[in-house]
Amino acid sequence: MRTAEKSRDTKETKIYEKINLDGNGNSEIDTGIGFFDHMLTLFAFHSNFDLVVKADGDLEVCDHHTIEDCGILLGKLFLEALGDKKGIARYGSMNLPMDEVLCNVTLDISGRPYLVFNCDFNRENIGTMSCEMVEEFFRAFSVASGITLHINVFYGKNDHHKVEAIFKAFGRALKQAVKIESDKIPSSKGVLE
């Protein structure tokens, strides 16, 4: 099974995470940021990854360090769990509607980190999660995992729906990309670095 677990301890956060890419979508999430917990739970469910995230961060300052550090650690964990990437589909894409919102997440497990993020928010926060931290989470994940990640919200009004669509589509796209399809590295170069 493709699993990994890691801890990250800094002066700002203490985080433990565990992932199983061949799981059932089970999750245990506790970051101290309710809406973020909800989004990570949805991500685990829609990716079918088993995911544990336990974070103790300096939330008295703000949510930035906790969310960014969770993204960094999750990216590293994902990369480790993938192993040599042999046989994976590599690419994933999902158009996902959430009521009035339509979102697309397309990604390439390329070894080349890059984030394109097109989504406008009307609110500063959803619960205690800053809307600006949605992009920061995905940037941290992309850089740490070496994934090219395009996130586009085409239209919609409700910011809750936008973020929820993004996390669900992200899970569905990753589920496609990690699926084992062959016994070869999915690159004409013979490596994904």
Strand content: 25-35%
Number of strands: 10
CATH superfamily: Imidazole glycerol phosphate dehydratase, domain 1
Give the fraction of residues assigned to helices: 25-40%
Q: What is the strand arrangement across the widest sheet?
A: 1-2-4-3
CATH level 1 class label: Alpha Beta
Do you know the CATH topology? Ribosomal Protein S5, domain 2
The low-confidence parts are none
CATH architecture: 2-Layer Sandwich
Give me the strand/helix succession.
EEEHEHEEEEEHEH
Count of domain modules: 1
Kindly state the mean pLDDT as a whole number? 96
The geometry reads as globular
Individual helix count: 4
Give an account of the 3D structure:
- With 193 residues, the protein is α+β, with helices and mostly antiparallel strands.
- It has a single domain (3-178), classed as Ribosomal Protein S5, domain 2 (2-Layer Sandwich).
- It has helices spanning 34-47, 64-82, 132-145, 159-178; strands at 3-9, 13-20, 27-30, 50-57, 91-98, 101-108, 114-118, 125-126, 129-130, 148-155.
- The protein has a 4-stranded mixed β-sheet, covered by helices on one side.
- Helix 1 (34-47) runs parallel beside helix 4 and helix 2 packs parallel to helix 3.
- The longest helix has 20 residues, at 159-178.
- The chain is globular.
